[in-house]
Amino acid sequence: MERNILKVVNMHVSFKTQTGRITAVRGVSFELNKGETLAIVGESGSGKSVTAKSIMRLLPKHNSEITKGDILYEDRSLLKLSIKKMQEIRGSEISMVFQDPMTSLNPTMKVGKQIMEGLQKHQNLSKTVAHKRALEMMKLVGIPSAEARLEDYPHQFSGGMRQRVVIAMALACNPKVLIADEPTTALDVTIQAQILDLMKDLQQKMDTAIILITHDLGVVANMADRVAVMYAGKIVEQGTLDEIFYNPQHPYTLGLLQSMPKLNEDRSKPLLPILGSPPDLATLGEGCAFAARCPHTMKVCHSFTPQDTVVEDKHTVACWLQDVRTPKEYLPETVVAVNSQ
Ligand SMILES: Nc1ncnc2c1ncn2[C@@H]1O[C@H](COP(=O)(O)OP(=O)(O)OP(=O)(O)O)[C@@H](O)[C@H]1O
């Protein structure tokens, strides 16, 4: 039985910039179930990190605002919590790991002390018990000579080991939700695989739900149960891993998949990049934001924003091609092929 732990409902996030107001997240909705991994994918600038930071309430105060929608954690609105209450939730119930481990680490403090700090603050543990738990976590994330390394500073660790320390810190209080924003992008491929394996292993041991933000579909294939595809501040398609990989319906999702190298495919076949670039969020009006780059654009796409259509169960897509009035000959071959199977 799926148990929903986090729910983002029709969230809109705006920034005041020098050139005017931009809406970076434009009506995002998704649910996260206990213990599952939801991957949020999309090109740079599509609003993945803003979505994550909104959940953590870590957006810059001076120029950003969640203008609409809600974020429900265990049915409580996070947006209504006081700063103090939110600080209690951050790190203990919902944790975040960033691409650059140094975002989370204090360079002037020994890592052991940093892990212990969270435990003492959130779980009121004594110094001795917190030390024991910090050591346990260092061992759990696979840091050799863990006891001695508790006494080291962040710069004494390699990039991969530093990210392990951050994961130890993020999971020390056994949070129910872990948001990992490009956690392995800065690491080389073998270390990347080790960190992802570690996250999967810890997720099983601790029953953590993970929101994994990435632009790497290979990482998604290895990690995700469900996938949300973001484009220009909106989720344009979401579904299970299989639905997104084997029955993609949005031309943007198709484009992402076609631009990804596949292991079992003829290497001489060229990859197909998505031509053009994402729209300027400052001037985005009505219509589908992908219309200018889409190979299947129809007249309606430029003037009216497509609403979510249910493909099956929880697989949804926001695209005019799904509309019953769209002639079948307009559908991309891949969509037709998959749907007529
Ligand atoms: N602090 C900020 N001030 C102004 N605009 C911002 C700020 N942070 C984000 N934005 C805007 O929000 C958009 C979405 O940014 P976001 O970081 O969420 O993208 P992303 O999908 O995570 O991309 P990346 O993969 O490059 O991290 C950006 O294009 C930018 O216009």
UniProtKB/TrEMBL annotation:
InterPro entries: AAA+_ATPase, ABC_Ni/Peptide_Import, ABC_transporter-like_ATP-bd, ABC_transporter-like_CS, Oligopep_ABC_C, P-loop_NTPase
Keyword Electron transport among UniProt keywords: no
GO-annotated cellular components: plasma membrane
Location, primary (coarse class): membrane
Key words of the record: ATP-binding, Cell membrane, Membrane, Nucleotide-binding, Transport
Keyword Nucleotide-binding in annotation: yes
CDD domains, A to Z: ABC_NikE_OppD_transporters
SMART domains: AAA
Domain of life, source organism: Bacteria
Pfam family, one: ABC_tran
Subcellular location: Cell membrane
Positions of the ABC transporter domain: 6-257
Matching PROSITE patterns: ABC_TRANSPORTER_1, ABC_TRANSPORTER_2
Example GO molecular function: ATP hydrolysis activity
Name of the molecule in the record: ABC transporter ATP-binding protein
Species this protein is from: Paenisporosarcina antarctica
